[in-house]
């Protein structure tokens, strides 16, 4: 057990009385990710762990590759607690990289394939990353050019490691050490294991420190709730570094259970359906827009999807009407999942009545997940009323990395995390998600912080002011609309969206629509009334869409 002096600076943690309670309850078992893989290699060695394209790795092979790569990272000079930004698509190498870093005690910073120079530059600079792991190309984008741009600006970034053609950098495959060297001082279970990214409402994402102990409890409990075992075959169709497909129960839950993970480079039915048929996939996870696409595509019945026992849907609320279509259309059970990378995860249970499954977003994992639903003054609302969701528990963080001012706003004095979600509780203790209180747009499961996009728009010489709001959309749930007060003659909307791309903003953050306006409506205290802007959108006809 670590002391305060041992902890990574800038990472708030649980008070010791809470930590002792979680250990006594058996939630925190003192296991690390490296130990998890080692044990599965012993007990499930010849079983297939990962399928990705033509690659099929057993648990023994994955364990050995992680050992060899950890030794290679160590030979480069990557040390325990060094930060390494990992930006890989759904390839097998994603797992050997993260398990190698876990085993070494270095800390992956999970980036998404859609991130570009703005986000990656910030992650590398803010964390003082020493290495950056990428694919050579994916989706028509050359990540090596991005790496050159970032490395030129971040002095700590010594190594760029590439899956595929390394170009001017180092090929990942050149790092394997055979036989692997013994690494001293393995990480402890209460150490930070990695950083995930928040879907925060202000600026670029905040970094979420997760420990081996707290995250593995969530993984184990999720695998049990979802009924995983050695026969489970999980299709990873969403980006592998997302919290949802990583741990709810996701790929790590499948490894815990000794099952098989199948990686899909794309989530389209054209890619996913043949994999389901070929590998006899039993479960997968999607965001609502993808679930709708899959259900439409399944009507053609070109592929055998009969092995699919369960579809998880999360990342945004699935409408009741769409939820009712899952079982008759795909022939499998639906499980609704509502959670956040900061911690709390809720599931509908496998034996729940169908009505509960299609109309709620589930109940918490743990008996020690504390949930409060409060009004604007932090007073408990009446049962069944909508309010702000607050939570704390054995796998919900107590603060973001190096974000003292933000933590003071996002956490109560007694450690409850202000999720920013508006929910109501059913008599059964299940949550129904009613919306977001934070200034954040949920575009098909991808979270867009309005303030971040506004700040980029304000850098354009023709923009005097900007306000980004959600535009209701029947397919994605929400799209983004930027209201712009021009400086002089308004530029074409395409000029502004091109400008944002040039600044390295991820594609999903580029506004779907741009509206020019002379002045913003204001609230009674002089703030921009985004509510009035959203209401104006519902009255206006579509214009200036990208």
UniProtKB/TrEMBL annotation:
PROSITE patterns: AMP_BINDING. GO terms for biological process: siderophore biosynthetic process. One of its GO terms (molecular function) is 2,3-dihydroxybenzoate--[aryl-carrier protein] ligase. Keywords: Ligase, Nucleotidyltransferase, Transferase. Residues 37-401 form the AMP-dependent synthetase/ligase domain. It is an enzyme of class 2 (transferase). The keyword Cell membrane does not apply. Its EC number is 2.7.7.58. Pathway: Siderophore biosynthesis. Residues 452-527 form the AMP-binding enzyme C-terminal domain. Belongs to the ATP-dependent AMP-binding enzyme family. NCBIfam families: DHB_AMP_lig. PANTHER family: LONG-CHAIN-FATTY-ACID--COA LIGASE, NONRIBOSOMAL PEPTIDE SYNTHASE PES1 (EUROFUNG)-RELATED. This is (2,3-dihydroxybenzoyl)adenylate synthase. The lineage of its organism: Bacteria, Pseudomonadati, Myxococcota, Myxococcia, Myxococcales.
């Amino acid at each position: 057990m670590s002391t305060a002096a041992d902890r990574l600076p800038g990472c708030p943690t649980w008070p010791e009385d809470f930590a002792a309670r979680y250990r006594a309850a058996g939630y925190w078992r003192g296991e690390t990710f490296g130990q998890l893989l080692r044990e599965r290699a012993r007990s499930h060695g010849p079983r297939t762990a990962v399928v990705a394209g033509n690659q099929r790795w057993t648990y023994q092979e994955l364990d050995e590759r992680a050992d060899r790569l950890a030794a290679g990272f160590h030979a480069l000079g990557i040390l325990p607690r060094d930060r390494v930004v990992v930006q890989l698509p759904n390839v097998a190498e994603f797992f050997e990289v993260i398990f190698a870093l876990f085993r070494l005690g270095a800390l992956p910073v999970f980036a998404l394939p859609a991130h570009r120079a703005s986000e990656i530059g910030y992650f590398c600079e803010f964390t003082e990353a020493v290495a950056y792991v990428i694919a050579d190309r994916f989706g028509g984008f050359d990540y090596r050019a991005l790496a050159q741009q970032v490395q030129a600006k971040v002095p700590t970034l010594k190594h760029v490691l590439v899956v595929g053609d390394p170009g001017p950098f180092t090929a990942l495959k050149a790092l394997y050490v055979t036989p692997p060297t013994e690494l001293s001082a393995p990480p402890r279970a209460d150490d930070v294991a990695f950083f995930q990214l928040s879907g925060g409402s202000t600026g670029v994402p905040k970094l979420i420190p997760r420990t081996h102990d707290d995250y593995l409890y969530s993984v184990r409990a999720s695998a049990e709730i979802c009924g995983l075992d050695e026969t489970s075959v999980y299709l990873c169709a969403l980006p592998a570094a997302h919290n949802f497909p990583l741990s709810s129960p996701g790929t790590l839950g499948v490894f815990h259970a000794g099952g098989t993970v199948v990686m899909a480079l794309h989530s389209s039915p054209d890619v996913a359906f043949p994999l389901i048929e070929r590998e006899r996939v039993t479960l997968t996870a999607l965001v609502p827009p993808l679930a709708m696409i899959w259900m439409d595509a399944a009507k053609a019945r070109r592929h055998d999807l009969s092995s699919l026992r369960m579809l998880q849907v999360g990342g945004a609320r699935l409408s009741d009407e769409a939820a009712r279509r899952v079982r008759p259309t795909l022939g499998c059970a639906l499980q609704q999942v509502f959670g956040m990378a900061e911690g709390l995860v809720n599931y509908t249970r496998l034996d729940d009545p169908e009505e509960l499954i299609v109309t709620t977003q589930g109940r918490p994992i743990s008996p020690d997940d504390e949930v409060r639903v409060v009004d604007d003054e932090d007073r408990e609302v009446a049962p069944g009323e909508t309010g702000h969701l607050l939570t704390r528990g054995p796998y919900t963080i107590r603060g973001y990395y190096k974000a003292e001012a933000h933590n003071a706003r996002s956490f109560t004095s007694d450690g409850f995390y202000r999720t920013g979600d508006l929910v109501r509780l059913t008599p059964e203790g299940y949550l129904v998600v009613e919306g977001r209180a934070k200034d954040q747009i949920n575009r098909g499961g991808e979270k867009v912080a309005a303030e971040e996009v506004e700040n980029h728009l304000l850098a354009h010489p023709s923009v005097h002011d900007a306000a980004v709001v959600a535009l209701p959309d029947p397919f994605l749930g929400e799209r983004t609309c930027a209201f712009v007060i021009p400086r002089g003659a308004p530029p074409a909307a395409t000029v502004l969206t091109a400008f944002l791309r040039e600044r390295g903003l991820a594609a999903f953050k580029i506004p779907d629509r741009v509206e020019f306006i002379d002045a913003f409506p204001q609230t009674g205290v002089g703030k921009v009334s985004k509510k009035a802007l959203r209401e104006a959108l519902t009255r206006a006809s579509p214009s200036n869409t990208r």
